[in-house]
Amino acid sequence: MKSRSRNFATLSLMIITVLLRTKIVAGQEALLGKKVLPLCHRECMPICMKVTEATQEICEGACQAGCVQLQGRGTGLSATDQGVDMLIVQLGNLLNTDVASMHYDKYYPPLPRVPARNHRMINSVVFGVPIKSHHRVSDVLSRTSGPSFGYVTSVSVRTNARPFLRGDGNGRFGRFGGKFVPETLMSRLRDLEEELDFVLSDHEFQAELTTALRDYVGRETPLYFAGRLTEHYRNKYRTTGDGPEIYLKREDLGHSGSHKMNNALAQAMIARRLGCSRVVAATGAGQHGVATAAACAKLCLECTVFMGSTDIEKQSSNVLSMKLLGAQVSSLEGTFQDASSEAIRNWVENLKTIYYLSGTVVGPHPSPVMVREFQSVIGKETRKQAKRLWGGKPDVLVACVGSGSNALGLFHEFVGDEDVRLVGVEAAGLGLDSGKHSATLAVGDVGVYHGSMSYLLQDDQGQILRPHSIGVGLEYPGVGPEISFYTATDKEAIQACMLLSRLEGIIPALEASHALAFLDKLVPILHDGAKVIVNCSGRGEKDIELLSKEACPLLFLESPRSTQQICEGACQAGCVQLQGRGPRGTGLSATDQGVDMRNMSSTKIQIRGQPLSKVLTRNHRMINSVVCGVPIKRHHRVSNVLRTSDPPLGSVPTRTDESQFLRGDGNGRFGRFGGKFVPETLMSPLRDLEDEFNFVLNDHEFQEELTTALRDYVGRETPLYFAGRLTEHYKNISQTTGGGPEIYLKREDLSHCGSHKINNALGQAMIARRLGCKRVVAATGAGQHGVATAAACAKLSMECTVFMGTTDIEKQSSNVLSMKLLGAQVKSVEGTFKDASSEAIRNWVGNLETTYYLSGTVVGPHPSPLMVREFQSVIGKETRRQAKQLWGGKPDVLVACVGSGSNALGLFHEFLGDEDVRLVGVEAAGLGLDSGKHSATLAVGDVGVYHGSMSYLLQDDQGQILKPHSIGVGLEYPGVGPEISFLKETGRAEFYTATDQEAVQACMLLSRLEGIIPALEASHALAFLDKLVPTLRDGAKVVVNCSGRGDKDLDTLIQRGMPSSLC
C-alpha cells in the first residue's frame, strides 16, 4: 500500500508538472512564452492560457497549456466562477476518458490516468477549486521544484516565535499561503515580489509614501478613549472595580473613510513604478473601490472597479463617489467574490499594462504580504500611541474579519507580543446554523481559492458557498493565510453600531460594528484596567440607507410636528409672538412671523420700558429689528431709537493698533457691526454665556479637555496638503513660463463628521454642559452643523434637537439619517436654513433655563459670533504652523467660501495682522447675480439687523429678507457675520463670487485630479482659482480651505450638475 501511495504521489506530481510546464509536441510550436491572443467570443477568453491561432476554436473539454480551460474561463477561479458544474466536468473524469477521442487530441499528448479521488487536488491547483481539509494535500504536493506550491508540513518546532508567526518570507504561513497559479502568472508575480522588496527599503519611495499618508490620507489616525462606552459596559456588568478601558483606533477618519486607503495608495505607487497605465480592482462595500479610485486620480492612472450588482444596490453612494473620482465601475451579477474573479480575468488579459490592486490579504504571494505590510501602519501607530497614553501595550486588540486586511493591519505589529491578545470577529450573519453567514474560520475548511491556500466556505463537494453579512465588506468566502476567531450576527452588529453612535457620536461601518459587538462577550472576562483597542476600520455613512430600510426603521420615523393655533394679537414676553409660532419670537424677521410688522404700529408694546406710541411710526422697522429681527436698511438711523447703556454702535473706533482694531473691541462689535440686538429677556443669559466663555478661554482644565478631544475625537490636526496635480493643471492652462503658484488644501474634510463644524460644536457643547443645560437646540442647512452637534451631544450625554428646512431635508437626506442615528431629534421647518434658524431661536427662548442654543455660524448676538470664530480659529493656527514647517514662511493667499463666514474666519483670523497675507472670500453667485437666485450678501446686500446683530443682509427696498439660493446648501443664508462684514468694509479681505456651475466644475476637477471630493460649499472657493491663479507670481503659496467632504452632495450632483455619462 505504501508503495502504491508513493506511485500515486509520483504520478500526480508528474501530472501537475505536465499541466503547468509542458510544451506541444508533434511538430507544434511550443506554447510557453507565446503571446496571448484574443478569442472571438468574450465568454471564451482564456485567463491563464498561452495559445496560438490554431487554438481559437471553442472546445468544451479541457486543454493543456499551462492550465485547463472550461468554457473559456481559467486558472485561479472557483467552479462557480468558471460557470461550470465541476461535478459534471471533473478533471478526474477527463483523465479517465479516452483522450484520443476528443477533437483537440492532435495538439496535446495523452494525459496519464490518475485515480478519480485525486481529481479535486488537481482542480485546486489548476482551477482554484477549493480543497477540503480532509483531502490530504501532502499526498500530491509534498515535493515541488519551487517555493510556489510547497508548504510547511510541520508547525511544531518554533525556533523563534516572531519570525515563525510572520511567515517564511515566501508568502507561506505554516501550510497556508503560497502561489497556486499557472506559469503564465509566475513571472509577473515574481516581478511584483521583487518590486515590493525593493520599495520596502527604498528611501525615496518611503519618504513619498509617508508624506502622502500624512498630508493626503490624514495619518496618524487617533487612538480615542471611548469613555461613555467604557462606562456603559461597567454599568451593564456591575463590576466592582473600574472594568476594562475601551479605545477606538479611528481609521474611519482616514481619507475615503476607511483603512483601505493605506494600501490602495501604496500599491498605486507601485503600479506607477512598474509602468502600468491602468489599475483594476474589485470591491464589495465600496470602500476599497473608492480608495483605489482616489489613489488612481491622484497618481493619474486609469481605474476600473468591478462590483457585484447586489453590492451596487446596497452601496449606491460609494458607486457615485467612484464615478465622480473618474473610475469606471463595471457591474456584474453576484457579489464581491464574483467581482474579484472578473477583476482577475481582466488583469490577466494584459499583464504588461494593467495592475491588479488587491485590497484584501488573500491571493497568491506577494499580494497578502503586500496588503498586510501597507496596512501595518495601523498597528505601528497603535503601539506608539499606547506608549504615549498609558506607558505600555494594549491587553487586547479586536478587529472585524472579512478577508482580514484591517485585522492584520492592527495585529501584525503585535504578533510577537504573546501578552497581547488578538481577537478577530467574523460575520455570523443570520446565525451559523442558518447557512447565511461569512464565518469562514468558524465553520470553513482548508482549500485553495484565488491563488492561495487558506480556510474557505465550501460544501462537501468543494464548491464555494455564497457568504452573507449585513456588513457587505465581510462577504467573502475565504480569509488570508495569516488569520485565526469569533463571530457576531447581523443583529448584534446593528445594535453595536447604534450603541456607539448614541454613546460616542461615532457612526461605525457595519463591518467594524461586528468587532464592537463582540465586546458584550469579551468585557465580562477581562480584568479591571485592561486596555482594549477596537479597530474602527471605517465610517458608517455608507450604511445609513441600509440601516434605515432593513435594520431599524423605527429609528428613522419622522417626529410629529406640533401645530399651534394662530393667535392674531401680540404679547410682550421679551418679544412679540404672532401666529403662535413658538412661545417667544425673539430675533425673527417679519416674514418669519407671518405678518407685516409695518401694520402693527398701534399695538401696545413697550421697548426698554417706553410705550411704542411714543416712538415715531417712521422708526417702526428699527423696533421690529430689535424685537423681531426685521432688518434695518442703512438709511434708517439706528441711533434715534437705541440709546441704551451699551456703547454706541454707529462709530468706527480710532485705530491705535491695527491688529487689535481688526479683532474687534472685545464686546462683539467690529466697527458698526455686531452687538446685541435682543430684548431684555435675553440679556441675562447672554451675559452668563459671555462670562462663561471668557472664563473657559483661560481655564487650563477646559482647554486641556478640548485639546484632547480635538486630537483624539475630531482628528486634529488636519493636513495641509500640496495639491500637485491641481497646481500643474493651472500652470498648464495659464501657460506660465515659470512654476506658477503652488496650491495647498487645508483638509477640514478629514475631520470627524466630515467638516470644520465639529470644532465649534464640540467646544460649545462643553460650555453648555458647564452651564448645566440638559438639552441643546441647533439649526442646520447642509446638515454638517446638525451632524456635528448631534455627535457632540451624543459624546457628552446631552439631548439634541436639530431644526432643518424642508427644502434642505430633501437635498441632504443622508445627513438627516445620520443625525437621527446619533440620537438627535430632527424637526422639519417649512423653508430653508434661515427659517430653521428662526425656529431654533424660538425654541431656545422658551426654555432658557434648560436649553442651550448652539450656533454654528458667526452670526447672532454677542458672544455667539466671537465664540464660533474662536473655536474655529484652530484652523488658521494650524495653517500657520504647518506653513512654517513646509516652506518656512507664511501663505501668500488664503481662500475660503463664505456663507455666514465660520470656515472663512476660522482660516483668516490668525492672519488678520499679517498684511502681506491676502484674505479672499468667495460667496455663492447661484444662477447669477442678475437672476436674483444667489447668496451673494457682500456683493449686493445692505446693512441691517437680523437674528440679533448688525451685518450685511440680502433684503429688498422694504427691508424684507430675500430668499437666498446656492447649490451649496450650507451657503444659503441671507446674511454674513459682523466680523466678515467689517473685513469687507475695511478692505482687509477681498470678496468675490462663484456660480453654481463653476462650483460643480471645480468639484469635479478636484475629484479627478486629486482624488478628493469636496463639499459643494468648499467648491466655490476652489472655483475662484480660475480667476485668481493667473494674477499670482510664480511660487506664490495659496491655501484653500477644503471645509467639508462632498459625500453629502452626490445626489445633488447627479440631479443638477454631474454629466449623465458619469451616472
From TrEMBL:
InterPro entries in the record: Trp_synth_b_CS (IPR006653), Trp_synth_beta (IPR006654), Trp_synth_beta/beta-like (IPR023026), TrpB-like_PALP (IPR001926), TrpB-like_PALP_sf (IPR036052)
Full protein name: Tryptophan synthase
UniProt organism field: Brassica rapa subsp. trilocularis
Stretch forming the signal peptide: 1-27
Sequence segments annotated as region (Disordered): 642-665
Pathway membership, UniProt: Amino-acid biosynthesis; L-tryptophan biosynthesis; L-tryptophan from chorismate: step 5/5
Catalytic activity field: (1S,2R)-1-C-(indol-3-yl)glycerol 3-phosphate + L-serine = D-glyceraldehyde 3-phosphate + L-tryptophan + H2O
EC number assigned by the record: 4.2.1.20
Domain Tryptophan synthase beta chain-like PALP: 219-538, 717-1044
Names of the cofactor(s): pyridoxal 5'-phosphate
The keyword Signal belongs to this UniProt entry's keyword annotation: yes
